[in-house]
TrEMBL record:
It holds the Pfam family ABC_tran. It comes from the Bacteria. PANTHER family: AMINO ACID IMPORT ATP-BINDING PROTEIN (PTHR43166). This is Phosphonate ABC transporter ATP-binding protein. The lineage of its organism: Bacteria, Bacillati, Bacillota, Bacilli, Bacillales. Keywords: ATP-binding, Nucleotide-binding, Transport. One of its GO terms (molecular function) is ATP binding. Residues 2-241 form the ABC transporter domain.
Length: 241
């Protein structure tokens, strides 16, 4: 179980509060959609969870480990197991899908293998399994530059998974995608949650969150204004965000 208690974050020289008293529990394998207006703190929340921003205060517990109390080891675990997916994932457009997925393991991949393109067979098999799980098996040897936006998102997801991600934090992963590609990315998230027990938190438009996410958080002025499961937003909830 993952628990956040009273996360607060302010930014800039004026210490503008962006997140206030954010608290929640979530289970491994959940798919949570975050909805909320521009400036409500959605990106800041994801970046705080990925430890890309320092928290002003708050307690962060992951499977019994107090992440800040555990010092370096706790933070290292998050950095290793939690993947933050940017809106426009940077891919090597002139390299294949497979290479892009494998190169994502920088740190684990020796430089000479990155340069020569030599791949160990167990790395190869593992990466191909993951590429299959995101529905790109038939495109594994295509150049990333030839892919659609939705396919590029799925390469980024595959890269995170190859890297060992157990939690995926995705900031507007389907913005700019056509409806079919958006659905395919979100179907993929759902499958990862139910079949691989991956946890996904994704910033989404309301309609897509309602259609795909089992749980929805509505953010407003840095607070979780509502936290609902298995249903659409009420008019009252829509007015809150
Ligand atoms: P959202 O993703 O919901 O649009 P953000 O988390 O990006 O919102 O930002 C929330 C608020 O915090 C916005 O008003 C934004 O301008 C402000 N903000 C975020 N980061 C910074 C920063 N580094 N410096 C100043 N203001 C920031
Ligand atoms: Mg944002």
């Amino acid at each position: 179980m993952i628990r956040v208690e009273n996360l607060a974050k302010s930014v800039g020289p004026d210490k503008l509060p962006v997140l206030r008293e954010i608290s929640f529990d979530m289970q491994q394998g959940e798919f949570i959609g975050i909805v909320g207006g521009s400036g409500s703190g959605k990106s800041t929340l994801l970046r705080c969870l990925a430890l890309k921003e320092q928290w002003d205060k708050g307690k962060f517990t992951v499977h019994g480990t107090d992440i800040f109390g555990a010092g370096y080891a706790g933070k290292k675990q998050i950095k290793r197991e939690w993947a933050y997916l940017e809106q426009n994932p940077e891919l090597f457009t002139n390299k294949t899908v497979l290479k892009n997925v494998l190169i994502g393991r920088s740190g684990q991949t020796p430089w000479w293998r990155m340069v020569t393109g030599m791949v160990r067979s167990d790395d190869y098999m593992g990466a191909m399994d993951i590429i299959e799980s995101v529905g790109l098996l038939d495109k594994a040897h295509m150049k990333a530059g030839q892919l659609s936006g939705g396919e590029r998102q799925r390469v980024a997801i595959a890269r995170a998974l190859t890297h060992g991600a157990k939690v995926i934090l995705a900031d507007e992963p389907v913005i700019g995608l056509d409806p079919k590609s958006a659905d395919s990315v979100l179907e993929n998230f759902k499958k990862l949650c139910s079949e691989e027990n991956v946890t996904v938190i994704a910033v989404l438009p309301i309609e897509l969150a309602e259609r795909h996410a089992a749980r929805i958080w509505g953010l407003s002025e840095g607070r979780i204004a509502f936290d609902i499961r298995g249903r659409r937003l009420t008019m009252h909830e829509k007015n809150k965000i």
